[in-house]
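Please predict the structure of the following assembly.
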Amino acid sequence: MNKRYSLRTLALLLALCLAFPARPAGAGDELAFVSERALQCGVHSETVDRVHAAVDSGEIDGAHGADLLLPLVEACGLELPLAPFEDKLEEGLSKHVRPQVIAHALQEKVEDYVFVRNLLPEPREKVDILALEALAEGVSKGVPREDVEAYAAEFGGVSVQRRIPFLVGAEMVSLLGQVRFDYDLTRTMLEAGFASDSLTPEWNYLIRLVLLARERGIKDKHVASHAVIVLSDRGSLGDLYARLGITGRSLTGGAGSD
Amino acid sequence: MKKFIAMLLVASVLAAAGCAKVVGPYYLQQEEYKEGIRVMGERFKENPDDADSAYYTGRYYLALNEPEKGLSYLEKAAELAPGNADYVFWTGVAYWALMDFDRERAAYEKAVSLDPNHISAHLYLGHGFVDRGQWAQALKEYDVVLGLDPYNPEALYNRARVLGELDRKSGEIAAWKQFLEYYPDGSMAMTATEQLNLQGDFSYRNHIIGQRNVTLKSMTFKPGTSVPDADGRASLTVLGAMMKANRDLAVHIVAYVKGNAPLAKARAAALRDYMLNGNPNIDRARLPLSWFGTAEKVEVGDSVFALDQAVNFITEVR
């Protein structure tokens, strides 16, 4: 946790603490209070209603309901995108995960998002939400923080002028990192892609090729070296499939193997 | 921006009116998958019997690289509209993404049984056979695809590859040439050219021109003369365009005619003249010449081929 995040979190908690004595005690009141804060801050009413429904059905108690919404209020106060938190909360409740576990996961997610946002180029209001989401979701799913740091440090400078390639690169770092694809190999592909301006959105689907290649016994290093050739030549993901002798499928309905 | 807002407004109105068939493709085309999930997913919640809403929600999830979520919606769509080949086909794609290849194939087979002319289902059935090494079955599927869509690049490319695997050499060479005739650029063209060259056919060759790898149709001439054939002249046009775009680029024209050095020299000069005539702004010094009265020796893989008559282009970066 970095210094800036600590200060913001403390400020938010202080604001909440100062507000608490002015309201009556009790789990129901706590939920009502946090719900109100959440709605005021921009959390979707469907999400708040979902928590209330879980409380009303007896699935969780009121205090836990408040605990679930608190990280969303915090994310909101920190000006983070709320959809990933709302989705996580919804997913946890749908799968009947214990509320303490959901709340903990949400709190960790807040920390992951703040960590990534602080790596992306300033100013904060201009941070690309999609790049933030891609990298932060990666971190929350196990991508080493140092990989994300390395990506932002080396390629973050291009993010303003070349939004799409930076976003595609972020997806690659996130998805490949989750399957423990060595970042040094990812880096070689990114370098070739940025140099040739060939990181088009279809490369978001490189992860499928990597998984298939592994199943066929093709080493990650081999995949990366061919990807560098294809990217340097401004080729497509379909070209890479062809070079490796694997057939691809399009997940979007477009031509080729995107 | 105004146009985008107007389109979004139209999409929202159509969504409100319930036109899933119109709105669904919109979010796919605009690559607004998350927004699509919000709109169509909500619509599906409100109308759990609406196959179209389920289908498009599944497609959006798939496009977002979330095949597990996508599959559940696509299966629902296929269940609600069991006669729709597209819905079934897309469950197959989701199964592929989840690496469940048996179910993938079953889905395509079902899609084809519902619509025997479903090009994508035949194509991916072919791909599945390739992945299993079932070459004859793959060839059959690709032939069906090309019967329905003669320019399908994936079918053309993989058909050539399959013919090679089946050891049908002449068919393989013809198939690679057919692919290259329609798709002479890019990385797949380079791979196709490598395969063609490995068979001893050099009607196309890969060249490194400046920073780029380029596939070019090989130069041929009227027999015994230095008059280039029409086919090869297209390659000179490509080279001319590259030299115009990169003023530091010089291309060394190297001609070979076994036993006839004067003819080799004449051919090299003829090619330079042709390029200069078409590109008067290119300095003559950027097109140096060499000629040899011997065959050109070309290494491909582990083999060395001797080409009695050939022209090579070698980059000089200044």
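The longest strand of chain B covers residues 249-257. The mean pLDDT of chain B is 91.
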